[in-house]
Amino acid sequence: MLFTRASEYALLSIALIGESGEPKDVDTLSKQLNISKSFLAKILQGLARKGILVSYKGAKGGFALSRPYDQISILEVIKAAEGKPPSVFECSPSKSSCPNDQAGSCVIWPFLNRLQGEIDGFLKKLTLRDILMPERENCHSQMKSQTIEQEQK
Q1: N- or C-end of the chain: fewer Cβ atoms within 10 A?
Q2: Measured distance CA(138)–CA(130) in Å, rounded
Q3: Cα 105 from Cα 95, distance rounded (Å)
């Protein structure tokens, strides 16, 4: 499976953390998202270990983004949340480590391997900004277009 609950919760948490502009604690996030506090804490700690979030201790502590939205790839978040790279299929990425020792005669392995490469490339290019702020970007583009049209009249 490409995205599990861990990936979903990681992305939802990051969205709330980024919007707040200040550290958010696990208790607050788990209540806002209606997610198990212990499961969310595990996810957020993993994101902090991978450098996606920064953890602050104390009364005003919590988690904050370590970098701007546009510098954090979706692939990076998924790898951190899942503890492994995402995969669309259960085959091995290399013929030599096929779990069924059938890679040499498998007619769909080349396609699946190419598909995985395309998805990995897409997720690497896609940033948090792309998925968390699309309406704002579209709104900004529409406003810019309207301004240009008005100036041309």
Answers
A1: C
A2: 11
A3: 10
Tokens of 100: 């069924």
Question: What pTM was estimated for this model as a whole?
Answer: 0.77
Domains of the chain: 5-152 (1.10.10.10)
Torsion of CA 43, 118, 91, 111, to 10 degrees: 160
Shortest CA distance to 1 belongs to which of 111, 114, 88? 88
Backbone angles phi, psi at 90, to 5 degrees: -90, 0
Give residue-wise pLDDT tens across range 100-119.
777 677 888 888 888 888 99
pLDDT digits (tens, 9 = 90+) for 6-34: 999 999 999 899 888 889 999 999 999 99
State the Cα–Cα distance between residues 11 and 9, nearest whole angstrom: 5
